[in-house]
Each structure stands twice: as C-alpha cells, then as structure tokens.
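[09:14] KT: can someone run the structure on this one? pasting the chain below
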Amino acid sequence: MTGKEVISIVIPVYNREKIVGRTLESVREQTYRPLHLVLVDNNSSDGTLRWLEAWKVANEREGFRITVVSETKPGAAAARNRGLREVTTDKLVFFDSDDEMGRDMIAAGMEVFHRNPDAEFVYWRHERECMGGGVRRSHFTTGDKMECHLVHALLNTSSYMVKTEYLRKIGGWDEDIRVWDDYELGVRMLLPSVKSVGIDRMLYTVKSQEMSITGTEFSSRAGEWEKALDKIERDIASSGCADRDRLLRIVDYRRIILAAHYAKEGSREIAGKLKFTTLSGERLSCVRKIMLRFAYFYTRHGGRGAWLLLSRFI
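[09:31] RB: done, structure tokens below
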C-alpha cells in the first residue's frame, strides 16, 4: 500500500442498526486499499450509534481507517457535510447506508482517475433491486450528461467519485433541501465546464425497501420535492450556460411528472395546483404545453418513459 492514494468514503446513517451491516461489509470487502471510512450518525433514536462504534472497534485495521462522528441537525445533506469536514484526502465517495458496493467499485473509479488526472469526477452505473421483484438498471450517458441527470438522475448519491476540492468549491450539500438533495448537487456538479469521465458498468446495488428515508411515494412530502426543483431552477438560471432555456424547460417537465405522480397517488388537489403553475409559465410555447399535458396524463395513468416520446419537443 506504500504510495497508494487514500480514498475517503462518507456514509450518513439514521436508524439503520438492523441493516447497515451489509452496507459496511461491502465497503470492508473493497479490493482497493487504503480507505478512510467516515460514518455519520444523524441523531438516530435506535442503537445505531453504539452499533457503529462497535463495528469500528471490530474492523478498523491498517489500510482501513474508520471515523465515527455525530450530526444532530436532521437531514442527509447535513450529515454528509459533517462527514465532508472529516475528509483530508484528495478524492471521496458518498454512499447510502442501505446500498451495497460491488467489490471493485473504488478500484474502478481510481483506475479511471489515474488515466484522467484532469477530471473533476468519475461516475458509474448501478442496478436497483425492486421490492416487487426484478432488477432495473440506471440510465447512463457520456454525451449530454446534464439532460440525462435532469431526466434520470445520472449523479445520484453513490454514483461517483469526486475531487474533494471541487466539491467544496461548488458549496457541498445544500442542507435546506431534505429530498432530492443529491439531484440538486448533481446539477451544480455538471453546470461548470469541467471534465468528467463515465464508467459504463454496474458498480453498486440499490436495495429498494419500505423503510427508505425519503419514502416510497411522493404525496406525504409534497412541497419538499418542489423546493428542490425550485433550487435547481435557480442554479440553472444564474449559471449563464448556453442552453439554459432548454434546461429550464426540462425542469418544467420534471414538475409535470411530479404532478402526475401526485395525481396517481390520489392527491388531485396538489397535483392540479402544480400542473396549473407549471403550464402557466411564460417560457413554454403552446406546442410545449400540449406535450407536457400529454406527459401528465400518460404518466398519471401508469405510462413510463414519457421523455422518450417528448424529448424533441422540449
């Protein structure tokens, strides 16, 4: 390990005493060393903090340093920023406490960084094990990354390795956003004209489950999703990027899809208000408003993949 670069992994943990073990085992089994694992207990009400401290004692060794800290401010963004303050390495990875790393995830990221030292971040794919059975693979592109992210969340929490200085330069995690905070951060990562390199491989697995922190539906947190989209709109509007208007229209598309999910869940009043507000926007032509209405009804009635049908009109 002499001369090899240390990589930090930051994992926020909230009430995960019974399931975080499999995530940590996947970190421990990484083929790459040395690693610095930063575990942030986010004010858990169960025995998570004690469990993490015991796991540190049992598993810390040369080449695998473990730091356990606490963050009492609620929210994953606050916990991730707390972990970020512990990072002294050049590069880091954020990971969720209910996902599992493939054994060579860190090694694959470092290999690409070694070939592309001028890149600010490296990103990869994942697969999702659905609660009802079956596996879904994440979207991926090395082309229009911003479009792919706005539509499909290309850069979710566990999908990249980033240079620590770059992440700090763009402001880290927005602690005022309680859902889709990784979605918003991904937009800020992509807005500057910096180099990033994609790895077209499934390097980790998302385990869908009932006890997801952000929930398995939208209506119970209505207003919070919109807050994230509003912040993303401000990020894009103030960026001065050449295709700003098109990106803002994609944000409108995401609002319409969100409204459709509200309606599908039976929250018709919330859905109607969001749909009306979105379609009243001055940046939408008559044709685009018609297309967004189609996307709303298509998605509301169970359709998937509306973007494939509408992308050329947005």
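[09:33] KT: thanks! The radius of gyration is 20 Å.
[09:34] RB: yep, looked fine to me
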